[in-house]
Amino acid sequence: MPTYEYHCDACGADFELFQQITASPIKKCPQCGKRRVRRLIGAGAGIIFKGSGFYHTDYRSESYHKAAEKEKSAAKPKPAKDSTKPKTDSTKPTDKK
Ligand SMILES: [Zn+2]
Q1: According to DSSP H, which parts of 2-97 are helical?
Q2: pLDDT tens figures, 62-89
C-alpha cells in the first residue's frame, strides 16, 4: 500500500496518509477540518511505496497499473459473470413444522 501526500489549501498543512491504492482521496483536513485538501499526485511526487519494492518514479508505469489492478481485484472480488443460480424459486423448502 502506498503513502499519499496531501496538502491543505486552507491552512497550508502537508501530511501523509497511508491508503489503499483504490481508496478515494480524502477531502477534509485533519488539522483545520476544512475540506480544502488535495492529494499531491500527478506532480511527480506524492506517492511513496514503502516496503513493497516499488519506486515512486514508477507510479505511472505499467507495473503500477498492474499493481493497482491487483489490489483492486484483491479488495473487491468480482462476482461470477455467469449466473449459476437456478431460475426457479421453488428450491427452498417451504414446509414449516
Ligand atoms: Zn487545513
Answers
A1: 62-75
A2: 666 677 777 776 766 666 666 666 666 6
Structural domain contains residue 84: no
Residue identified by cell 506524492 is: 46
User: Would residue 59 count as lying in a domain?
Assistant: yes
Q: How far is CA 27 from the centre of its chain?
A: 14
Ligand 1 centroid to residue 33 C-alpha, Å: 6
Distance 96 CA to ligand 1 centre (A): 60
CA of 15 to the centre of ligand 1 (A): 10
CATH number of the domain enclosing 32: 2.20.28.10
State the cell numbers at 11: 491552512
Number of domains in the chain: 1
